[in-house]
Amino acid sequence: MLGGWSMTSAENRIADMAQQARAAAAELARVEPAQTAKALRAAASAVRGGASAILAANDEDLARAGKLSAAMQDRLRLDAARVENIAAALEAVAALPTPLGDVIDTRTRPNGLRLDRIRIPIGVVGIIYESRPNVTADAGALCLRSGNAVILRGGSEAQASNRALHQAMRTGLSSAGLPEAAIQLVDDPDRALVSAMLRAAGGIDLIVPRGGKSLVAAVQADARVPVLAHLDGNNHVYVHRAADPAMAEAIVIDAKLRRTGVCGAMETLLIDADYPAAIPLVEGLLERGCELRGDGRAQALDPRIRPAAAEDWGTEYLEAICAVAIVDGLDAALAHIAAHGSGHTDAIVTADAAAAERFLAEVDSAIVLHNASTQFADGGEFGLGAEIGIATGRLHARGPVALEGLTTYKWAGRGSGQVRG
Amino acid sequence: MLGGWSMTSAENRIADMAQQARAAAAELARVEPAQTAKALRAAASAVRGGASAILAANDEDLARAGKLSAAMQDRLRLDAARVENIAAALEAVAALPTPLGDVIDTRTRPNGLRLDRIRIPIGVVGIIYESRPNVTADAGALCLRSGNAVILRGGSEAQASNRALHQAMRTGLSSAGLPEAAIQLVDDPDRALVSAMLRAAGGIDLIVPRGGKSLVAAVQADARVPVLAHLDGNNHVYVHRAADPAMAEAIVIDAKLRRTGVCGAMETLLIDADYPAAIPLVEGLLERGCELRGDGRAQALDPRIRPAAAEDWGTEYLEAICAVAIVDGLDAALAHIAAHGSGHTDAIVTADAAAAERFLAEVDSAIVLHNASTQFADGGEFGLGAEIGIATGRLHARGPVALEGLTTYKWAGRGSGQVRG
């Protein structure tokens, strides 16, 4: 419930923004998808045309970023290439087909009443993110293309960059005749505004946190609004005894080392005790500079493998470190994943179809893979287009969330005077 | 997160139940749907065979129910017919086809990776309900048939009845070789156990409150677990100027008076200022004993119409009372519903197809109807089978929620050694 005498000024400000967003969402529900595409293409031009102003704003942010870690400064930093990537990403989202208006199912009842279930926007989405300014454009674009109004709350360290990018989005909206309140930016660093967003049930329909584990956990702990969250990706690759060694090595090296900082990276390698080529497998990782932390039997494979502590089995390293356990068969692998996995992405490598099907059926993760790298956990790789995130929860949307995950449905019934009587 | 030194004993008890439920859910994920059907048919026999014990337990509850309202006592009361209805309902759910294993979509990527999106159970569902003992069987059956483990928490006034019905459910489970922990009952009246359920994030995946508005609102306010909630159904029927008078009268009388206590009942009647047969329409309701509360222009139709107060436009009466407003055309009707509706079910009566399509598109409710009674808002009438409730939220499931709404999905990918490289 919004409104009421007991609201703080932060709550009132968010309530006002949510009210404007709701009105904008009602307008968006009436426009053709071509209009949101047009707005995003215009926003892309505004980003390109305003590149120098965007970079100048980013310099302002960087000048204040002295105390941030090098990694955070890199996430914050824009350059000509990154600005062009932002513009290109806007055009890519503009080109995505929208699921809006799709009839999910249709049924005509014996009494003649026809019922259609139709995809519609969720309404008002709140995005809470950290220092990456590109999220302002990416997330704004995905919400708009799926017909939603969005309230963006980026990190205060990126305030000037976010304002400049938000201005380009507003230019795109107005040049397509769409309400500027369809994409709003909370550009005040006051954290009370974040809390107010998390509590704006009825005003904001869905919160999507984009950032590190601590941000997401904090959002989940405080939110009164439904949250589409992605916590950690503690992903496993299980090399079954019937795995082809060349395939296993290629998948394991890709899953761990292609990019170590992505949520789809393998963090624990499970090697079947009966897998005949375990030594070359671990050597392939070690020789590429990957630190391995193993259980007793894994350590016996190579002296460079360090002992794993209990917490290693639950750690998302996001760097060139991997836990390694030797497991006695499929059941032990399933049990290890059930005990330590985070429900994100887990893979089995095997030539044994029955073992693969059991793994796919029984591993309770958003994404389960047979003979493929966990690094495919990505909306683009799934053919969904850009993603707003990878959901590890169990409700509404799971795995890579793109446009469809930002929609809901309504039931539309067409009758000819039917009564229940 | 469950576990940890800081948990109360109530939290520990729920955590233990949730852990057993999780293990049971893992077993359910491996059985054929025929097994849950078998368990429900066996439970139906156990209900019939144990009818006298169930009725004796219900007498115990009724003996302690002296201070309850007559309405609550009626909801609590079982008799031979109601027990038979419970058994028949279990058999009906057993006969429902399950969506489990359905492939929602399938795609093969250019690299040959095949991705299937597959329906699976949510996992562990918590049901919090009031004095109706039949919910123990109905909700337990829907959760089991959709492959979920369930933790049931009924009203303390129905404790003995719920125990007896739960015993029949357990008999059904064990006779089908399914784990009894698939359907657990919290049969301790301590309210701290309800709070513990609402906070058991990670242990319970979804909470479904079944009961009055105050119960649902309290659950929504405290829950840390996602809630599939149905608040009020402040439903409108808009009689457009181009409505057929006979059809309008039949739909309005059915929507309001067929059953006044159901959530699909009409609570506000909107009559177009240009509708020519307004007087017989309101007389049809008045003559059937329905109290009408109208705005100034509505009162002018008949002296028996009382003045409506501001709160009447937002009231779910659930009795033979109806608010009536005269509106100046479709836009005014849409504005009234946007301002006062509860997003449940709203209907237009008109022979004007364009007006109907605008109403269906622009009314932002879970169910929108053209030329049909709002009392069709029911899972059975939608052909979905028994319903766990009607969701008025915007995430996951909307409108009547039956088996599909109690499922989620996973992505299963089948490759031949694909790496991202």
Keywords:
40% helix; cytoplasm (chains A, B); seven-stranded parallel beta sheet; GPR_dom (chains A, B); alpha/beta; Gamma-glutamyl phosphate reductase (chains A, B); Aldehyde Dehydrogenase, Chain A, domain 2; proline biosynthesis (chains A, B); four-stranded parallel beta sheet; homodimer
Task: Describe the structure in your own words.
2 copies of one chain form a homodimer. With 421 residues, chain A is α/β, with parallel strands linked by helices. Chain A has 2 domains: 7-228 and 388-414, Aldehyde Dehydrogenase, Chain A, domain 1; 235-376, Aldehyde Dehydrogenase, Chain A, domain 2 (3-Layer(aba) Sandwich). In chain A, 40% of the residues lie in helices and 21% in strands. The first copy, chain A, contains 14 helices and 16 strands. Chain A has helices at 9-28, 33-49, 51-63, 70-76, 80-95, 134-145, 159-175, 192-198, 213-222, 245-257, 278-287, 296-299, 330-340, 353-362; strands at residues 103-108, 114-121, 124-129, 149-153, 183-185, 206-210, 235-239, 266-272, 291-294, 306-307, 321-327, 345-349, 367-372, 389-391, 399-401, 407-418. In chain A, strands 10-9-11-8-7-12-13 form a 7-stranded parallel sheet, with helices on both faces. In chain A, helix 1 (9-28) crosses helix 8 (192-198). Chain A is globular. The model of chain A has no long low-confidence stretch (mean pLDDT 95). Chains A and B meet through helix 10, helix 14, strand 13 and strand 16 of A and helix 10, helix 14, strand 13 and strand 16 of B. Chains A, B: It comes from Sphingomonas changbaiensis NBRC 104936. Chains A, B: InterPro entries: Ald_DH/histidinol_DH (IPR016161), Ald_DH_C (IPR016163), Ald_DH_N (IPR016162), Aldehyde_DH_dom (IPR015590), G-glutamylP_reductase_CS (IPR020593), Glu-5-SA_DH (IPR012134), GPR_dom (IPR000965). Chains A, B: Pathway: Amino-acid biosynthesis; L-proline biosynthesis; L-glutamate 5-semialdehyde from L-glutamate: step 2/2. Chains A, B: This is Gamma-glutamyl phosphate reductase. Chains A, B: Belongs to the gamma-glutamyl phosphate reductase family.
